[in-house]
Design goal:
This protein is of the alpha+beta class. The protein contains four helices and seven strands; from the N terminus they run E-H-H-E-E-E-H-E-H-E-E. It has a domain of 115 residues: Aminopeptidase, CATH 3.40.630.30.
Length: 173
Amino acid sequence: MRIVTCTYESHAGAILAILNDAIVSSTALFDYAPRSAESMVEWFRTKAAREFPVIGAQNDDGALLGFATYGTFRGWPAYKYSVEHSVYVHRDHRRRGVALALMKRLIEVAIQQRYHTLVAGIEAANAPSITLHEKLGFAYVGTVRDAGFKFGRWLDLAFYQLLLPTPLDPRDG
C-alpha cells in the first residue's frame, strides 16, 4: 500500500464508487441517493480551491483502497483553524490498516497547513470508526441525538476532536 495525492483524473471514479457504496449500504454518510459522476467535478474543485487534501491509499496495481480528506467545519471566520474530516475505505479492504494509514497522513498534512482542530462526526453506532479515532488520540466531545434519519431509524451523531500543536501564532481576522 502506498499513500498518494488523489486527482480528479486518476481517482474521481474510484472515490465516487466508495462514497456511493457507503451511501446505499451504511450510515457512514447521511445521504440517501448515490452521487452523480458530475458531482465529483465540483467536489474536487472545492477541495483544490481551499487547498484541502484528498489523500488516497493504493495497492501495487494502482487500485484505490480508500481515501481521506477534510473540509470546512463551519463557515464563520473564527473557525478557520478547525476542519472536519472524513475517511472511507473500499468494502473489500476494511480492517487492514488502510484507514489508520490515511488518517496518520491526514493529521500530518493538517499540521503542515497549521490547523488546530480536526473534527470527526461519526454515526454513534459505528464502533470501528470510533475505535480508529480513539486509537489516534481523538477525544469524544459530545453527541447530537437523532441528528439524522436513514434506513427507517434515527441516527445519533457523535463528535470526536483531535487538538493539534499548530498554529504557533493564531490570529484573529
